[in-house]
Automatic annotation (TrEMBL):
Native source species: Limosilactobacillus alvi
Sorted UniProt keywords: Hydrolase
Domain AB hydrolase-1: 21-245
Origin organism lineage: Bacteria, Bacillati, Bacillota, Bacilli, Lactobacillales
Domain of life: Bacteria
Keyword Hydrolase: yes
Protein name: Alpha/beta hydrolase
InterPro entries (UniProt xref): AB_hydrolase_1, AB_hydrolase_fold, Carboxylesterase_BioH
Length: 261
């Protein structure tokens, strides 16, 4: 299925079940199929599940002018409003988490029940006062480092084989060319959503990975100390793709949080 955005781009999406809406948002270079091992689980638990391919990803419209996170954030607003999704929980992985953080700031007029960020620090650039950015990048080197980091191993021991059966065909059909999307990645890297998270009154869960190759999981605890609305949960024996590497642990962690909202 598709919906049209404000500028006539099409977002490909899937919709399952009925109940409290959950919107799952993939990351940079990702595909909505990355959430395959969450769909049936949460539908069986009585939730309504939505997944979609972000603009210029997967089966959604191409956009050679995509350089800003704001565009993706506004796409999420279009998605919620045009499909009349009421009080969803936003669940974003990696850059998809940053889309969710940015949504809180850019679209406070659209109510959401909660935000869940999966292995994504709200500030990617390391500074003398912030040591929880993406790997070793700083304002001085982020372009050079990000341009060459496409071959970093994201996972600890790979993702669940059931996920690969869903993911590999769409990767072949809709290949993502990293070098063509570096301007978007650079914009993602420059953003700082810490003030948004520290000020929000919307419940937030930050799920981190003990073996993430990208982020020190302590960033979540640092933020949680400053805002009681933020909760944290670490998952062990996983790299960056928590929901694909440890799906049972991830699903149970998320379910427990949702049941206590």
């Amino acid at each position: 299925m598709h919906i049209q955005t404000r500028d006539q781009k099409e977002l490909n999406y899937y919709h399952y079940g009925k109940g409290q809406p959950l919107i799952f948002i993939h990351g940079f270079g990702g595909y909505q199929q990355i959430w395959h091992l969450q769909i049936d689980f949460f539908v069986r638990q009585g939730f309504e599940v939505w997944t979609y391919d972000q603009r210029d990803h997967g089966a959604s419209s191409r956009d050679e002018q995509l350089t800003s996170m704001d565009t993706l954030i506004d796409d999420l607003a279009d998605f919620i409003q045009r499909l009349k999704i009421k009080d969803p929980v936003l669940i974003g992985h990696s850059m998809g988490a940053s889309v969710s953080y940015g949504f809180l700031k850019r679209h406070p007029e659209i109510p959401v029940k909660a935000v869940v960020g999966v292995d994504q620090s709200p500030k990617m650039l390391n500074t003398p006062s912030w040591h929880f950015g993406y790997m070793d990048i700083t304002r001085a080197n982020y372009r050079t480092v990000l341009a060459s980091h496409g071959n970093v191993r994201e996972t600890l021991n790979g993702v669940d084989k059931r996920l690969l059966w869903e993911l590999n065909p769409v990767k072949d059909q809709f290949p993502f060319i990293r070098t063509e999307h570096l301007p978007l990645l650079y914009d993602h890297a420059k953003r700082d959503w810490r003030k948004t998270l520290l000020a929000t009154k919307v419940p937030v869960l930050l799920i981190t990975a003990n073996q993430s190759p990208y982020f020190n999981p302590e960033f979540a605890e640092v933020l949680a100390k400053e805002n009681s609305k933020i909760q944290t949960q670490r998952v062990d024996q996983t790299g960056h793709v928590i929901m694909g590497e440890q799906p049972m642990a991830f699903n149970q962690c998320l379910l427990t949080y949702l049941e206590n909202l």
